[in-house]
What does this fold into?
Amino acid sequence: MKIVDFELFAVPPRWLLLKLETDEGVVGWGEPIIQGRLETVRAAVTELVEGYLLGSDPLRTEYHWRKLYQSGYFRGGPALMSALAGIDHALWDIKGRHYGAPVHELLGGHVRDRLLVYQWLGGENPEDIAASARQDYDRGYRAFKLNFVREFRPIETTAAVDRAVERVAAVRDAVDDDAFVGVDFHGRVSKPMAAELVRRLEPLDLMFVDQPLLPEHADSFAGIADRTTVPIATGERFYSRYDFKRLFTDEAVSVIQPDVTHVGGISEMRKVVSMAEAFDVAVVPHCPLGPVAFAASLQVGFCSQNVVMQEQDLDLHDPGSSQRLKLLEDPATFTFDDGYVERPTGSGLGIEVDEEYVREQAQAQVNWYNPVWHHEDGSVAEW
It folds into this structure.
């Protein structure tokens, strides 16, 4: 079997899908994307597939990962690793379909029958975000994450801090102690403010504080972790096991949130998760993306003991109305019940992409960029 062709489809709201074709008719799908840098990743995928993969045996997943990563003198980083990730998804999808097994069975077999998922909460007003949390709790979700702040100056006022804490407290009150609540600083908080803000959140019994600092300041994570009882998390902007290594050796985090679409795909995420297990670090994969990426992330989660929860942004509670699940032939592919998604049993990634619908959606203009925020003085703020 050989790889003979590929296609890329940009689809709303901001996703890029890859279709890899073989001479035996077996097809694999992947989701290579950096939100806001779609065309950059499209170019990288094209270079990698045309330069290294066409004519190759798709079943050599580990060899291809090494070749696509190691053959370039300049390697790593968000663009190349996200391109590699989508290719890796598709190769594993082909491999699973070839052997008639889910990818997680090829990776050692499942260690659980269902996996808890969390719901992201948006909104600024405490009453509104609390109502949203309660509504999602009633829909069956048992875990939530929300952003802590919007624009946040390097040194902020007590009133701004109080408002941010009030939003989190409103969510905690809305769902009581029956649910997990995580908070994402999103890298918007400076080092002078981060430790104090985490301290203010301690009474709310959070499951973690995510990205208390930018990844550029990973050497300071341990200092925050040493000063709080709240588990510290990060990982969505780390792109390989090499990026995570120092976090583990410094005992800087209790939870990591790698993204299967940015961390080099299933092959690399599996290695990162295994490294984390050796340091007793829990894994809650990041995935605010489409159903292909979600399916790829689940394959790692179901064969990894220390993956305890999975992000989703697909409206799993109502697949019939979910616009994002329409990319699948069966929008109800992911069985959701009482906050959990059931183990996928289909071959490969366990999904069937509705190619006709994908082609229809790909006619739209997809050109999403993240907002550029500014502080009151006109300087650029972190998004």
Q: What stands out?
A: The chain has two domains: 3-101, 104-349. The mean pLDDT is 96. The chain is about 35% helix and 15% strand. The two ends are 45 Å apart (CA to CA).
